[in-house]
Amino acid sequence: MNDLDTPLAGIRVVELSHVLAGPICGLMLADLGAEVIKVERPPKGDGQRWDVSADDSLGSDSASFFMINRGKDSVALDLKSETGKAELWALIGSADCLVENYRVGVLDKLGFGYEAVKARYPGLVYCSISGYGRSGPWAQRGGFDLIMQGLSGILSFTGDKGAEHPTKCGPPITDIAAGVLAALGVVAALLRKARSGKGDHVETTLLETGIMFTYLQTALALASGVDPKPMGTGYPTYTPYEAFEAKDGWIAFGTTAGEQSWHALLEILELTEIAGDPRFATTADRVANREALGALLTARLRTRERDHWVERLTEAGMPCGPVLKVSEMLRHPQVVAREIIADYPHAELGSAKAIACPLRFSEADPPPRKSAPPLGQRGVTWGPEGPGKPACPNRVA
C-alpha cells in the first residue's frame, strides 16, 4: 500500500468478480484509494478481457476491461484446486473486504460462501452482488441487465412517445448502479466495523437496483393505479422539460417551478402571444396539452441553430444544454476543464484514456493512476499439476 492519505488508504479488497457489476464495485473502491486485488480464473481470466468485438480492442485486452479494471492488481487462481483454495484463503485473511458477484450458491460449493468465510474471519466485510438476491423463488437464476430492465418495468416506459415495443436504456444501468450501491454498502460496513470491530454481509441485487430507478414512475403507479407510458425525453408531471430539435441539432431544457420561468421562456422564444392561451395557463394545463405546446416550441426552435438557443437560454438563467454524441461529449470544454477523461498508464500502449473517478475531495489525496492489471500479475496458480506461488503476502497490521 502507498502512504498517501486517500479516503480508503490501508483497506485491502479481494474482488472475486467478473464482467461488470462486481468489477464496478471494485473500481469505485480503488478510486477511493483501496488496494483492490482481482481474483481471476486461469488461463484466460475475466471474460471481459477477451470476449469482445473488434471495436473494443485495446492492446491484448479490451477497452472495456481497461475502463472498468484500471487501478487494480490481478491474481489468477484455480479455485477447484487445493493450492488455489489455500492461496485464496491466505489472501482473504489479509483483507478487509471481499466483493463477489457469482451466481447464488457457486461460492458456497467452492467453500468460500459467506458463512464459511465468516467462521474464519468474522471481522471481514463480505459483499455480494447477484441478479435476484439470496431469497425468493428466483434466487438461483442468473441475472443480466437487459432482463432486469424488463423485470423492473424500465423497458415498458422507455422509448419514443406512443411506442408499443420495449426500449432499453442505452447504458447497462442496473449493472453499473448495482456496483456503485455495493461500494456504498461496503464503505458503510467498514465504517461500522471501525466502531464495533464487527464484519457484515452486504448484499444488493440488479433487480432492486433496477426498481430503484423507477422511484418516480412507481410513485405515480402507486398513487394512480395507471402504468407509466413511454414519453421520449419528456417528464410525466411537468413540461416543457425535454429535448427539442433546433435547426442543426437537439437541445435539452426545462422551465423551473413557477410561472416566472415559463413566461421567461416565452420571451426568449418570442412566443409571448401564447401567454394567455388557456391550454397553457398552468402546469397541469401544459401537461394536458403537451403535444400542442411541443409543436409550437419546436417550430420556433427550428428557425435558429442549437448554439444560439443554448446561449440565449443560458443568459436568462434557464437550465439547458446541447444533446451531444459521445465523441462530442469527450471534446466539450466543461468535460475537458474538469479532466473527466484522464490518461492512465497502459502496460502495452504506454497510456490510454479512461473516465476518471467522479468523486472529488478537497483534503484527501487522490490515489495514483494505475493501469488495468495483466492477468496474474501478482501471482498465478494453475492447479495441482502446475507450479504455484503465493498470491499475495499477508498484510502486516
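Above is the first protein from milestone M3; the second protein from the same milestone is given next.
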Amino acid sequence: MNRVFSGIQPTGNIHLGNYLGALRQFVELQETEECVYCIVDMHAITVPKPAEQLRESILDVAALYLAVGIDPEKSIVFVQSDVGSHAELSWILTCSSYTGELSRMTQYKQKSKNQESAPTGLFMYPVLMAADILLYDTNVVPVGDDQKQHIELTRDLAIRVNGKYGEDTFVVPEGRFMKSGARIMGLDDPTSKMSKSAENEYSRIQLLDAPSKIKKSVMRATTDNVGAINYDPENQPGITNLINIYSAFTDHDPQEIVAKYQGEGYGTFKKDLVEILTDNLAPIREKYEKIRHSDELTSILKDGAQRADAIAQKTMERVKKNFGLGIR
C-alpha cells in the first residue's frame, strides 16, 4: 500500500477549485492508500497574520477536512507545527539545496514580485514543502498543476541526498496531478484560476457559502455574447468553466451537458447549476457546523499529531544516522 501525503494552508474558506482539485482526491485516496493529511500552518506564516486568526483558520480547515469526507479512522489528520520534525528536516534539506534552484521557483518569483529583497520564508517555502513530504516516506503526493515545480524539487533533493548519504535516506515521491477537467477558473475571469485572494467575492464559490451567495455567484458568472451552450475553452471560456463545474458534481460528460441544453439560454443552465451546487454543498456545510466547535475536532488533531510523529521520528532517526548527526 502506498503512503500519500498532502496538505492545505489554513488561509480561509476553501473554494470549489480546492475541493475538486485536492480534497475530493483526498477522500478517494483514503479508500485504497495510507493517507497523511496536514494543515500546513507553518507555511501560512510566510505572510504574517494575527495569531488568533491563524488559530481559528487552522480549526476551520480541519473541520472542512472532516466535513468533505476525510475519515480520521482511515487517514491521519494533524497540524504541521504539532510535529517538530517538519522544521528539523527542513533545515537539513536546506543544507542540501542551492540558492539557484530556489530562485528559479515560479511561485517565488510571482509572490516576491522580483523585488531585490523579499521575505526569506517565501524563498525557503519549497524546502519546507519537501520536508513535509519526505518526512513520511511518501510515495504519492496529490497536488495541483501549479505545484509541479515544487514536486520536482522535492524529488531532486531526495535523489541528491540519497546519492550522497545513502540510498535508503528518502523515498522518492511521485506527484499525482489533478485531471485537467477539474481545473476550476474564476467566475468573473475564466482565464484565471479560482482564487481565495481575489477581491471580487463573487469570483468564487466556497464550500460554506449560503445558498443565496451561491446563487448570486453563479448568476453573475461571466459568459459571452454567443448565447449558445458549447464546450469551447478557447472561444467560450466562461460557459466552459461552468460546464466543468456542472460535470464535476454530476459525473456527466461535458458533451452530454451541452446536448441537454441545446436550444436553452444561459439563464436556464445557470439556474440548474445553482440547484446542483446547493444540494451538493448543503451536507458539507451541515457536517462542518456540527463538528467545528466540538471537543471531537481537537481530539482528532491531537491523535493525528501523535500518529504522524511516530512515523516522523523513524524517518528522522534514519536521516540523522545517515548524515552523522547527534551522538549514537
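Note on the second protein: The beta strands are 3-8, 34-39, 75-79, 140-143, 174-177.
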